[in-house]
Write a structure and sequence with these properties.
By secondary structure, the protein is mostly helical. It folds into 2 domains: about 90 residues, no CATH class; about 200 residues, no CATH class. It has 17 helices and no strands. α15 packs antiparallel against α17. The longest helix is centred in the first third of the chain and has 22 residues.
Length: about 300
């Protein structure tokens, strides 16, 4: 467990955020071993001719045993350090996913960046848990399709908690999309949410837009790695929503939510209740992030049930 926490195989954005905690663990480990380190180094890797090292090898077991004794004595301190790291990781997440048991950085990344499904503020915790633990993208899309009514309610509740006047107009249009979805007008809801998404990016993410959206110059989401974790979780679904679409291309119309396809390829392949829900979730999530950012992260917002 300690090795995984000190050197997780995750995106740079996560590694950078947790480096202070990793340093604390490494420091405690170094402090525990420092008195014995010179002797261990000499005994484990002596610079001797090969005949001597053959005879010396049986004693390595003794050294390893002594090292195990030292580590066992420091177990309580190391456990405390790893608990502190786990708590630091937990607090970087929005409240609706903060207390999900067994949550890994890889799972969050697969949902928000890989599938373009929002996790900031919406959905409620029990749906977020199902999405995070689903076996693949198809299973996650099935959850959205099956629980669309609850997800629609989550968007409405989250948007209603907004307090920043600057966002009132955008929130009003987002809630109209949500109402249209709830009333059975999913095509209208998706069209409005897709256009509102573009408006939100142009108005509120103008400086970030060049790295948020794929283009001829930006073909990978490397720019996202400069964001703090909270922002990354909020904006990562944008990359998937803006995947490039060529109406004259051979790839066909995408079936998962895509802003460009919603605008330029009105069809049953792109327009669906499931995509409308995902679009409504995305605009709700981004507006919630902006609201929290402008209020200094004062509010524990969104469903935690």
């Amino acid at each position: 467990m300690l090795t995984a926490m000190i050197a997780p195989e995750v995106r740079k954005v996560f590694r950078d955020q947790y480096s202070p905690f990793k340093g604390m663990i490494a420091s405690r480990l170094a402090d525990s071993l420092e008195p014995q380190f010179p002797a261990f180094k000499a005994m484990l890797a002596p610079e001797l001719p090969k005949p001597f090292t053959r005879q010396y090898s049986p004693f390595k077991g003794i050294v390893a045993s002594r090292l195990a004794d030292v580590l066992e004595q420091q177990q309580a301190a190391l456990h405390a350090a790893t608990r502190a790291l786990a708590e630091g990781v937990r607090l970087t997440y929005p409240p609706n996913i903060r207390n999900i048991e067994g949550l890994s950085l890889e799972q969050v990344d697969a949902v928000v960046m890989g599938d373009g499904i929002p996790l900031f503020g919406v959905p409620r915790s029990n749906i977020a848990r199902s999405l995070l633990h689903a076996r693949d993208a198809a299973a996650r899309r099935a959850i959205i399709g099956r629980r669309w009514q609850e997800l629609t309610d989550d968007c409405d509740v989250f948007l209603a908690q907004g307090v920043v006047p600057e966002l009132d107009s955008d929130r009003s249009f987002a809630r109209r999309a949500v109402r249209a979805l709830r009333d059975g007008h999913s095509d209208a809801a998706q069209a409005l949410a897709a256009n509102l998404l573009d408006t939100i990016l142009r108005k509120h993410f103008a400086l970030d837009r060049v790295v948020l959206v794929p283009s001829n110059r930006v073909k990978t989401p490397v720019g996202y790695e400069d964001f703090i974790v909270r922002k990354y979780v909020a904006v990562a679904p944008v990359w998937s929503a803006y995947q490039r679409y060529d109406p004259q291309g051979l790839d066909g119309i995408p079936r998962r939510f895509a802003r460009h396809a919603s605008a330029h390829a009105v069809s049953r392949a792109q327009f669906s209740r499931r995509n409308a829900v995902q679009a409504a979730m995305l605009v709700s999530s981004l507006l919630g992030y902006l609201d929290d950012q402008r209020t200094g992260w004062q509010y524990s917002r969104g469903h935690t049930g």
